[in-house]
Amino acid sequence: MKTEKKFLWGASLSAHQTEGAVDVDGKQPSVQDTRQRDNHEIADFTVAVDHFHHYQEDIDLLKGMGLTALRISFAWTRIIQADGGVNERGLKHYDDVIDYLLKQDILPIVTTYHFDLPDHLEQAGGWTNPDTVQAYSDYVEVLFKHFGDRVKHWLTINEPNIMLLADQKIVGFHRENPECYASFYNLMIAEKIAIKKCHELVEDGQIGPVPNISLVYPLSSKPADIRAALTFNAVRNWAYLDFSVKGRINPVLQAHLKDMGITLEIQPEHLELVQNNLPDFIGLNYYTSATVSFPQPGEAKLAGVSDQQSEDVYEPGAYKGVTNPFLKKNEFNWTLDPLGLQTTLEVTNDRYEIPIMITENGLGAYDELTADHQIHDQYRIDYLQQHLAAIEQAQKNGVPVCGYLPWSAIDLISVHEGIAKRYGFIYVDRTDKDVKELKRYPKDSYYWFKQVIEKGGL
Ligand code: BGP
């Protein structure tokens, strides 16, 4: 297994949450441009933080922070058009971005698809339609052939598990109906095709899945709560990594679905593809742990909580998301659990035993720009320091973590909360309502991370 020799100090972003320029140079609409927005008070992705036009300035700032890697995503609809044609101007834009990263000696790590499914594919059934698998296969073949000489580190599909669990807010399909498991299967087959094609087309190419992994705790030592955590760990986490890394359907998931009258098996024509194309590493996005209990008949699901962190999940007779009474929360109601990251890493390593790259980890917060253009985000430094300490402890315990790429490199449009929920090391001066001049200002966390990188750790 070829692994990057040096630990990668990076950061992460996605195309739709940063680029803007939603109809520039032939880009066509994705579901992020067309989906029903349930909150018109927050910024949409039309301008975002205009990374499309500011990418050189942003990369220069990230170089100044000492980054050795940057995770970006390509916008599928900038590159492939609804008629299947290739948009040369879209390829040219990402040529310029990749070439500039390499010029600055920053390793590009590219996510092929980060929540921004082409709208015309969604209109034709999205991931419930096997044609979408073929469309994705054609798309990634263009990527690997065009960029494979310069991009050697690839991530497949960002957080398929969050897409499966989320409601319509992202591109979600509802778990309440069996169709979502057909979508799960098609997403996982698409990922396998990307792994196969990357290994065929990209010399020395390395590729990994990139789910959001939050270890699931039982609310109590009640045996029924333990089983609820076992089941939700399978549904939320291991379903995705078992398919990707072990080439199997997770058996606990399979039994759970059978109880729901759903049969999920690898189709015979896919067995060779699924079992013989395995990833080189795991990209792992972690924000918090999750906690569930066994719901009593008639017990309602938790209401009014953030759906990103699995508190609102609910399958009658199986599991119910709950708030962990032993953990604090941030101002966006997301639980804080750095020890959970160490445990998640050690459990994941115990199951899969391949390198793990932390491809997202960060704190969304209301940052304040002072009159002299400073941002004193000690709360973000504390969050990152605690989670990096957990990673270093996991490494001491034998987990081969190959990189730390916090979310996010620069402020961007939060999926759920617009620009107000800021994650970046670099502040972008706009509000949800007023784009202003989009000036960039390094935060205190930028200078803290610069020092960490210089020291090679905490
Ligand atoms: C992850 C996504 C990122 C980003 C992050 C923060 O699940 O991969 O794209 O959205 O969550 O979530 P939010 O923007 O909702 O605060």
What's this model, at a glance?
The protein has 458 residues and is α/β, with parallel strands linked by helices. 39% of the residues lie in helices and 13% in strands. The chain has one domain (8-211, 235-284, 352-455): Alpha-Beta Barrel (TIM Barrel), CATH 3.20.20.80.
Strand content: 5-15%
The largest β sheet comes out as: 4 strands, parallel
- Helical proportion? 25-40%
Are any ligands bound, and if so which?
Answer: 6-O-phosphono-beta-D-galactopyranose
CATH class: Alpha Beta
Task: Give the CATH topology.
Answer: TIM Barrel
Low-confidence stretches: 168-174
Count of all domains: 1
Pfam families: Glyco_hydro_1 (PF00232)
Protein name: 6-phospho-beta-glucosidase
Family: Belongs to the glycosyl hydrolase 1 family.
What does this structure look like?
- This protein is of the alpha/beta class and 458 residues long.
- The longest helix has 24 residues, at 223-246.
- It has helices at 15-18, 31-34, 51-65, 76-79, 88-103, 119-123, 130-147, 160-165, 179-201, 223-246, 251-259, 271-276, 338-352, 378-396, 444-455, and strands at 8-9, 69-73, 107-113, 153-158, 206-210, 216-218, 282-285, 290-293, 314-315, 319-322, 356-360, 401-404, 426-429, 439-442.
- Residues 168-174 have low confidence and may be disordered.
- The chain has one domain (8-211, 235-284, 352-455): Alpha-Beta Barrel (TIM Barrel).
- The protein contains 15 helices and 14 strands.
- The chain has a 4-stranded parallel beta sheet, covered by helices on one side.
- The protein starts with 7 loop residues before the first strand and ends with a helix.
- The chain is 39% helix and 13% strand.
